[in-house]
Amino acid sequence: MSEVQGAKLGLNADRYPAPAKINRFLHVLGREGGYHRLQTVFQFLDWGDALTIRSRTDERIVLSGDLAGIPPEQNLVWKAATALQQKRLQGPLPGADIHIEKVIPPGSGLGGGSSDAATAMVVLNRLWGLGISEKELCDIGLGLGADVPVFIHGRACFAEGRGERMRDVSPDEGPLVLVLPEVFCSTAQVFSRPEMVRDSAAIRFEEWPQAVEQGRNDCLPAALASQPELAHIAHELGQHARFVMSGTGSSFYLRVPTREKMRTIAGLVSTVSGQVVTTSVTNLSPLHMQLGEDGPATR
Ligand code: C5P
């Protein structure tokens, strides 16, 4: 039941943001090869995890920080760094020390693990001087998780397929209220529920603004069925405003016109559930902003 002020993602020479993403809508068109075909618009929050990354003189990848008791070899950041190491064509294998500060809860639909992996890839590509193209980084990233490519790309986009076919768009940016219920939604479980809506009609690219306006998330019925407590929270939030679920849940957000409105809504929903974060949504990822990029992540 706490309300926190979304701390701006920290800037520091070797501490890099791994922001959260939101889905402004999420349409599920069908199934293909164990995955679902989606249409969505991604944007980034000025709130999320942070990674401190330094090169090592030996070839080890050493993780520290918030590792949730999981062996480092199972961490997406370790897998991402190891996958990049293999791309070094000549000279000794480079290594890195990576310290992870986690803020984005796992199972919240905000892409935390994927964002951590993407930040490691974009930064190590530079630190190690690999010169790997954005396209190739995204191909490697997609093998780690469906949300990794959009974080590598770093710009708001209309995405299709598993989320890897991206076309840049510029939805409204600004203040946002994020609600983080203390509920873990497993992406695989939500996608496999019978309540899952899997037959939405594809929209044309030009129709993305209307879809954003509608804010429909086809995963909502399945997420609510998978976690009955979440259905209660969604109902309560709905009494205050039209909140939208991100990804496969469990987080909900509301775009608001002003910071004053943001504070009012945050106060109203602070009694509903979990943590309420006041932050803002952007079309350029805070990672790419810090790296001074508005183009491909490899420049
Ligand atoms: O790629 P990610 O690790 O996020 O996906 C976890 C699981 O969620 C996949 O193994 C798959 O079962 C399901 N999924 C899906 N369709 C998607 C994304 C994920 O069915 N587009």
Textual characterization of the structure:
This protein has helices spanning 76-85, 112-127, 134-142, 148-153, 187-192, 208-214, 220-226, 228-240, 259-269, 286-290; strands at 3-5, 15-32, 35-56, 61-65, 95-101, 157-161, 165-168, 174-180, 244-245, 252-255, 275-282. Helix 1 (76-85) runs parallel beside helix 2 (112-127). Strands 1, 2, 3, 4, 5, 6, 7, 8, 9, 10 and 11 form an 11-stranded mixed β-sheet that branches. The radius of gyration is 19 Å and the shape is globular. Helix 1 (76-85) links the parallel strand 4 (61-65) and strand 5. Residues 1-11 and 295-299 have low confidence and may be disordered. The longest helix is centred in the middle third of the chain and has 16 residues, at 112-127. The chain is of the alpha+beta class and 299 residues long. Bound molecules: cytidine-5'-monophosphate. Residues 35-36, 38, 145-147, 162, 187-188, 191 line the site of cytidine-5'-monophosphate.
Give me some keywords for this one.
disordered C terminus, 299 residues, binds cytidine-5'-monophosphate, 11-stranded mixed β-sheet, 11 strands, 10 helices, single chain, disordered N terminus, alpha+beta
